[in-house]
Amino acid sequence: MTDTHNPSASMDNAAVAARMQLARGHLDRWRAILKEPSHWVSIWFFAYTLLGAVSSGLLPILLPLMIVALTHHLSWVAYVMGGFNLGLLTSPLWGTLADKKHLHRPIFFGGFLVLLSALAAMPFLPSIFTWSGLSLLAGAGTSAVATMASLFVVEFDPQNEWEPRLGWLQTFNGGGQVGGLLLAGIFVGNFKLGLICSALALIPAIWLGAKGLPVAAKRHSWRTEVGDRMRRELDWRFLAHFGRPELLGGGLLRFSHHLSLRGARRWADVLHTRFGRFLLSWFAVAFGVAAFFAYFPVAMQKAYNVAPALTSSVYALTAAIALVLYSVGGQLSGRFGAGKVYRWSLVLRFLGFGLLLLVFFLPISKTLLAVAGFVLIILSWPLQSISGTTLTARLTPFSQGAAMGLFNASGAVATVIGTFLSGPLVHFIGYPSLSAIALIGILLGWLMGHGLQAPDAVPATVDSLAAQKA
Fold first, then answer.
1. Which residue ranges does the record assign to the Major facilitator superfamily (MFS) profile domain (predicted)?
2. What are the residue ranges spanned by the domains of the chain?
3. What is the largest CA-CA distance in the chain?
4. What's the pLDDT band for 462 if we cut at 50, 70, 90?
5. For 94-128, how does the pLDDT look when each residue is reduced to its tens digit (9 = 90+)?
6. What whole-number distance in Å separates Cα of residue 293 and Cα of residue 347?
7. Which run of H or of E encompasses 257?
8. Helix or strand or coil: residue 3?
9. Which CATH number is associated with domain 39-452?
10. Whole-prediction pTM value?
11. Which residues contact 452 (CB under 8 A, 6 or more apart)?
């Protein structure tokens, strides 16, 4: 008589079945993850990738190097890069035109055409006035495309799709920036070719936009300005999860067009609050570092003996690694408070610029310390960005959308002013002035950032503001 019941074999079969079920679960989860982007990504997002590669990757490296190489005038860098940053501030104009005239597609494609034309003309017109004008046009074109990119999502897609679509849109832009920085290392020996290739890269961007941009809104029932609706309904916590490229205008390429810049009119209401003190701190830091970021590829080469190809590669690699720190910054802000994380980020940034200044006074190799300082500066940005966004939302005495407007405007204006003033500084003092002014701005920002979220710190309210005025 054969024993058909084998407990050991049954247990083995059950274990195998459990493992197979677990493996199928993992496989299904990975399939869902891989399929997730297809729900939110449109083909025109790749056009925004190419914009990121050109405006945030190639231009910050190639343009300063070309200006110095062709003219030998260091101060010209500040004026040309300042023109670009000034052009980015035209974003409110494009948003207003889109709202009133419904010219989304013409503005989007026109922005690409203006940027393309400016880049193609720059190598052949070596004049400070011409370069500054073309750079201003390039910034305005970049601003037009970036503003319309956000509006294409919030006006042409249902509200419940805004956050994932905007998230993927910015992910594509950030990926383009990293790719552009890597490509910049190839073109540092031939600036003219690099700028011409940058212009040519925008041609497929126009084609991708023409192929994928929506023609009519899927759900367009606006009775009020889209900016007001987006301010009310787009969660600030979502904005905090996505970094802003610091080069060329900081957060201007993200969510800072007309629908948030209007909050600047409320500056007087917050000047004497903790929120106002934070905005002053943010302004001081942005102003201080603007000079360095206008000149950094030239400064790394001339002052620290770091080849431009190495600078762009280190920046690209560090920026890619720093993406992880956005989630880390959010976790640290939740555990220790955004105020502390903000000041910690400034300490890291202070150490980075301290290394850049220290090498001028010590008989040591400049290259290694300069690269280490540069890496610290880049790595500190995600912590600063996410903690700053969180502080904006928690300390504001009015709507979070209007507060984001003040937050973006303070950094944008500080960047423009700091960039233009860096020209005389470098001309009369030299490269040490770049890190010195950054240290001063960061120190002021750190001091003004003290106690923003102390145990007794309660975010200001409209009632408390009225009581203060009374």
1. 274-470
2. 39-452
3. 103
4. very low
5. 877 877 888 888 999 999 999 999 999 998 887 88
6. 18
7. none
8. coil
9. 1.20.1250.20
10. 0.78
11. 274, 277, 278, 338, 339, 342, 391, 395
